[in-house]
């Protein structure tokens, strides 16, 4: 009889585990600074983050702050910085390569050492 009760209890416990269902998706929202100048930059930055694991990416051009909601089980924060840098925009943690930066349209170049005048001083 005791064996029967233990078996019954084990079956109840196992069946209750099956009804727990999948864990809810975890979302984290972070914000960080990104260098940019214009609406084309905004679109480029937001499109760079249009990837699996990113739920929302909004770049505020006035404050130069990017706010990203993502799944930390699929992406690490540094990967978000790298994705932005890969399209030519420096973040507070990752600098874009000079090759990619130089391929940006002139209106999108933000580095002060662009030329002897600097951006926006012509």
Walk me through the structure:
There is one protein chain. This protein has 122 residues and is of the alpha+beta class. It has a domain of 81 residues: Alpha-Beta Plaits. Helix content is 34%, strand content 16%. The chain contains 4 helices and 3 strands; from the N terminus they run αβαββαα. The chain has a 3-stranded antiparallel β-sheet with strand order 1-3-2. It starts with a helix and ends in a 20-residue tail after the last helix. The C terminus is likely disordered.
Features:
122 residues, alpha+beta, Alpha-Beta Plaits, elongated
Radius of gyration: 24 Å
Low-confidence stretches: 115-122
Q: And the CATH topology of the domain at 28-108?
A: Alpha-Beta Plaits
- CATH architecture identity of the domain at 28-108: 2-Layer Sandwich
Structural class: alpha+beta
Work out the helicity level: 25-40%
**Biggest sheet: strand arrangement:** 1-3-2
Number of helices: 4
- SSE order, one letter for each helix or strand: HEHEEHH
CATH class identity of the domain at 28-108: Alpha Beta
What would the average pLDDT be, to the nearest integer?
85
> Mind describing the biggest β-sheet?
3 strands, antiparallel
How many runs of DSSP E, i.e. beta strands?
3
Report, as a whole number of angstroms, the end-to-end distance. Answer: 92 Å
So what's the overall shape?
elongated
Binned strand content: 15-25%
């Amino acid at each position: 009889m005791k064996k029967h009760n233990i078996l019954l209890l084990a079956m109840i416990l196992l069946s209750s585990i099956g009804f727990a269902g999948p864990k809810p998706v975890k979302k984290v929202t972070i914000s960080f600074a990104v260098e940019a100048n214009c609406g084309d930059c905004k679109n480029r930055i937001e499109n760079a983050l249009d990837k699996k694991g990113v739920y929302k990416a909004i770049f505020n051009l006035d404050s130069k702050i990017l706010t990203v909601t993502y799944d930390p089980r699929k992406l690490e924060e540094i990967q978000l910085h790298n994705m932005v840098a890969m399209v030519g925009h420096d973040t507070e943690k990752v600098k874009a390569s000079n090759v990619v930066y130089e391929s940006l349209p002139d209106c999108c170049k933000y580095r002060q050492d662009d030329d002897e005048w600097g951006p926006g001083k012509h």
